């Protein structure tokens, strides 16, 4: 009986426990569900918040991680994912590391704005195992202008040098492009080059991306039939622009009205020798008045260098009729030739040696190697540009027109007034620097603003006598003038006779930036507030005081390692002391 | 609640361990930012404390779990937990108080790194050539990543009643969430999963913050982690 009772008691107990454990399990399950719902709601809210309250605050002083609106526009139009190979990799010294980090940061910022993801990885071309493939790849890179840079560094007191490739390759599913990111002017210190390259990263990278994603080309007209570049001589322009533009040769005589020109984004006038008729000037003028963009390289004086041997020859002037037009717009091309102590060379046959003719590069101050650039985005940080027989420019009064000089001659230069004698003879000795008493003569001008027509208050040319579309003032045209047309013309390879791209110097390794200059000028003319404007970014260099760092290194190391810890320990001791006192009082 | 925060905060600083943890943290950072030639700003040569912000998470992975490890586990072990649970406080209030205390301790621990800023300020050429606003932005990012680690640490502490185990779990979780996903993304490099994995990685979201860019996506992501972990921790301790 007792036993039975006991048993029953036990039964109830276990029943109770069962009930309890079911309760707990139910509770647990309930809690789990509540938890999952809570988390779900939380992430839902956060998702909605992040969709509708998007913000991005760049706290850095120069807004170095913010993008120019035009860059954002390019990125927002990306349709497929982009992959970037950063070729600059491996162990790098401070400055290069900073550069590398900036490339990475820029790409990440791009990714934050782009419509499709942009990913990147590091890829070291020198890491390719097979020598053949490696060499092949390096040649492939050079097609994009990515040439290795020799990096010297001091490591543990020993000089080391190795090759780095400071560039990137960018690809989408179908195409691949790339470019060098470390760029600067020869006269710059490595620090300056690095800083400039960091500033230009956004521009360089977005330019490559735009190249990959661009759909249609713009049209550029090259005016012909006035002795402008002949046949091969136009190769340089076409080569430099073919990637971004369709270049058309346009004989102005055949243009019926200004409408025929308006389909072109830019009209190039490169070194004409013959006069433009009134009607042609009218067309160009009205093109500008309707918001057209002109790039004009004008040679007011010309020399036939074939005749420069012996006694030499005299530079003769051209009457193209365009100078009057330019004068009206606000710039005058002087009938002179600029000489610069920073000059190029002209190869002349000095004599025969056996059956080989000896070619000697003659110092030739008429070939101005200009490396003083203004801060304008078109030329900011540019490497040197070669002008061949360039005339100086002056501005004249033209209300409503902004005149920005772009390129200057060097510190030691001079103007040779007409008549200019040109003879190889004169150059047999290095020129005397004391004669070069002028400096920084402007060689290229950018004109923007409201132009007044050449035909304002004048009779219109016969063919357009009652042109109903005649305009006296321009809307938003722009004009770039250089005092030389030859910089737009490439040289020829002396052995094969093939035309070379602009700025390539057949006689030496050093090339000039003529090709890039042309590209930048057009980019700016076509879209002045576009990606060219991103080049205006100005980052501050914030170096440490190297001397002080060297002299006081250990002091600062000690201060910064020991002092914070000391501070914490002092706080601790004070606290212990206070506690002791509290205890003591209580007792 | 405030008194609980204060109690928790005091508990940390009444023990020698607290000072030890912070000292080790500061020495490690000091060496990384100022002494080791590979990472030092002095060899880097620019007035830019990037090293501080890049390496702090490495040190946080160990420091933050050490701060939080005993917050719940120790109370459970010593039995004071029952006392706390019977106090007129809701479980989530307890968790949040402890969490706030942890964040305050972390903030105090990193505050002395302001000395680095003043040192660089002095060493710049010219003196004072440092991007102050950028530094503040990066510092804010650093505090946020510390706050995420604190949530992870507190969660680990609730999982076990052994504080050593809590530390190990906390450090491991922080490490995986911060570095693990990034490493995984590197391995996957070409697969389409990369973006997803990268998005999960704390390190990925911290990167632009460490440079002084405060972006909504990153902030919400961090807040998401913090609040989620507090919810989960609350549910965990209610079990008892």
Question: How would you describe the overall organization of this protein?
Answer:
The complex is a heterodimer of chains A (587) and B (240). Chain A has 587 residues and is an alpha+beta fold. Chain A is built from twelve helices and 26 strands. Chain A starts with a helix and ends with a helix. In chain A, 37% of the residues are buried. Chain B is built from twelve helices and one strand. Chain B has helices at residues 2-13, 16-35, 41-44, 50-78, 80-86, 91-110, 114-123, 132-159, 163-188, 193-200, 202-209, 216-238, and one strand at residues 213-215. At the A-B interface, helix 1, strand 1, helix 3, helix 11 and helix 12 of A face helix 2, helix 3, helix 7, helix 8 and strand 1 of B.
Summarize the structure.
Chain B: It is found in: Cell membrane. The complex is a heterodimer of chains A (587) and B (240). Chain A has 587 residues and is an alpha+beta fold.
Which SSEs are present, and which pair or pack?
The complex is a heterodimer of chains A (587) and B (240).
Chain A: H1 2-52, E1 56-58, H2 69-76, E2 82-86, H3 94-113, E3 118-122, H4 131-143, E4 149-155, E5 158-164, E6 167-171, E7 176-180, H5 190-213, E8 218-224, H6 235-241, E9 245-251, H7 259-262, E10 266-270, H8 278-289, E11 293-297, E12 301-302, E13 313-314, E14 316-317, H9 322-329, E15 331-333, E16 336-340, E17 343-353, E18 356-370, E19 372-373, E20 385-388, E21 393-395, E22 401-408, E23 413-417, E24 421-422, E25 442-449, E26 478-482, H10 514-526, H11 546-551, H12 553-586
Parallel strand pairs in A: 2-3, 8-9, 8-10, 10-11, 11-26
Antiparallel strand pairs in A: 2-6, 4-5, 6-7, 12-14, 13-24, 15-21, 16-23, 17-18, 18-20, 19-22, 22-25, 25-26
Chain B: H1 2-13, H2 16-35, H3 41-44, H4 50-78, H5 80-86, H6 91-110, H7 114-123, H8 132-159, H9 163-188, H10 193-200, H11 202-209, E1 213-215, H12 216-238
Helix pairs in contact in B: 1-6, 2-4, 4-6, 4-8, 4-9, 6-8, 6-12, 8-9, 8-12, 9-10, 11-12
Protein name (chain B): Gliding motility-associated ABC transporter permease subunit GldF
Pfam families (chain B): ABC2_membrane_2
Transmembrane segments (chain B): 12-35, 55-73, 94-115, 135-155, 167-188, 219-237
């Amino acid at each position: 009986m007792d036993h039975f009772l006991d048993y029953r008691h036990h039964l109830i107990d276990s029943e109770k426990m069962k009930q309890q454990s079911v309760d707990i399990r139910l509770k647990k399950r309930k809690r789990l569900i509540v938890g999952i719902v809570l988390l779900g709601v939380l992430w839902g809210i956060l998702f909605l918040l992040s969709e509708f309250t998007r913000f991005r605050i760049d706290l850095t002083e120069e807004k170095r991680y913010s993008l120019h609106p035009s860059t954002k526009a390019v990125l927002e139009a990306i349709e497929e994912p982009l992959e970037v190979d950063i070729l600059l990799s491996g162990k790098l010294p401070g400055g290069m590391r900073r550069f590398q980090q900036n490339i990475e940061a820029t790409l990440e910022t791009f990714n934050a704005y782009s419509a499709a993801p942009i990913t990147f990885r590091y890829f070291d071309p020198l890491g390719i195992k097979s020598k053949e493939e490696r060499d092949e790849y390096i040649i492939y890179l050079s097609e994009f202008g990515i040439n290795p840079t020799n990096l010297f560094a001091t490591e543990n007191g020993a000089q080391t040098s190795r090759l780095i490739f400071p560039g990137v390759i960018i690809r989408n599913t179908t195409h691949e492009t790339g470019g060098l990111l470390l760029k600067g002017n020869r006269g710059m210190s490595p620090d300056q080059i690095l800083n400039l390259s960091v500033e230009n990263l956004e521009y360089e990278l977005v330019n490559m991306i735009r190249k990959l994603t661009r759909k249609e080309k713009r049209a550029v007209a090259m005016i012909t039939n006035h002795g402008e570049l002949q046949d091969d001589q136009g190769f340089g322009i076409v080569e430099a622009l073919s990637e971004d533009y369709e270049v058309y040769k346009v004989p102005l005589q055949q243009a019926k009205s200004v409408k025929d020109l308006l389909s072109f984004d830019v009209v190039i006038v490169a070194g004409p020798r013959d006069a433009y008729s009134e009607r042609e000037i009218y067309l160009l003028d009205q093109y500008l008045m309707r918001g057209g963009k002109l790039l004009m390289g004008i040679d007011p004086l010309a020399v036939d260098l074939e005749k420069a041997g012996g006694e030499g020859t005299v530079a003769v002037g051209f009457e193209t009729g365009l100078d009057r037009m330019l004068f009206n717009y606000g710039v005058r091309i002087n009938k002179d030739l600029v000489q610069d102590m920073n000059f190029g060379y002209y190869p002349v046959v000095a004599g025969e040696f056996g059956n080989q003719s000896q070619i000697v590069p003659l110092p030739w101050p008429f070939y101005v190697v200009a490396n003083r650039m203004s801060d304008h985005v078109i030329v900011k940080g540019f490497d040197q540009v070669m002008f061949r027989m360039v005339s100086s420019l002056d501005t004249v009064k033209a209300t409503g027109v902004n005149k920005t000089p772009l390129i200057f001659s060097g510190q030691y230069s001079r103007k040779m007034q007409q008549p200019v004698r040109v003879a190889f003879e004169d150059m047999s000795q290095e020129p005397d620097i004391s004669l070069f008493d002028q400096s920084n003569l402007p060689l290229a001008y950018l004109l923007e603003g409201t132009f007044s027509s050449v035909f304002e208050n004048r009779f219109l040319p016969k063919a357009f006598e009652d042109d109903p579309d005649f305009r006296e003032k321009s809307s938003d045209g722009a004009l770039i003038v250089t005092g030389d047309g030859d910089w737009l013309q490439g040289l020829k390879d002396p052995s094969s006779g093939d035309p070379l791209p602009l700025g390539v110097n057949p006689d030496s390794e050093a090339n000039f930036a003529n090709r890039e200059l042309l590209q930048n000028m057009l980019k700016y003319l076509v879209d002045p507030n576009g990606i060219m404007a991103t080049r205006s970014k100005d980052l501050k260099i914030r170096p440490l005081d190297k001397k002080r760092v060297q002299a006081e290194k250990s002091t600062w190391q000690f201060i910064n390692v020991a002092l914070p810890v000391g501070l914490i320990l002092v706080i601790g001791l004070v606290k212990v002391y206070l506690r002791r006192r509290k205890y003591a009082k209580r007792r | 609640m405030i008194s609980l925060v204060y109690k928790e905060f005091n508990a940390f600083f009444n023990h020698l361990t607290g000072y030890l943890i912070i000292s080790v943290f500061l020495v490690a950072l000091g060496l990384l930012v100022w002494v080791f030639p590979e990472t030092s700003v002095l060899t880097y040569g620019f007035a830019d404390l990037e090293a501080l912000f890049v390496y702090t998470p490495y040190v946080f992975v160990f420091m933050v779990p050490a701060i939080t490890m005993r917050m719940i586990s120790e109370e459970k072990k010593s039995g004071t937990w029952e006392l706390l649970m019977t106090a007129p406080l809701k479980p989530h209030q307890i968790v949040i108080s402890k969490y706030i205390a942890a964040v305050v301790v972390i903030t105090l621990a990193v505050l002395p790194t302001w000395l680095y800023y003043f040192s660089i300020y002095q060493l710049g050429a010219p003196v004072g050539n440092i991007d102050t606003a950028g530094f503040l932005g990066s510092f804010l990012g650093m505090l946020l990543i510390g706050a995420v680690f604190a949530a992870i640490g507190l969660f680990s502490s609730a999982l076990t009643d052994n504080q050593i185990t809590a530390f190990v779990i906390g450090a491991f979780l922080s490490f995986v969430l911060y570095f693990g996903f990034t490493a995984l993304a590197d391995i996957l490099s070409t697969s389409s999963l990369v973006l997803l994995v990268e998005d999960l990685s704390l390190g990925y979201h911290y990167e632009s913050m460490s440079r002084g860019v405060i972006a909504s996506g990153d902030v919400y992501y961090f807040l998401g982690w913090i609040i989620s972990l507090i919810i989960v921790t609350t549910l965990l301790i209610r079990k008892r």
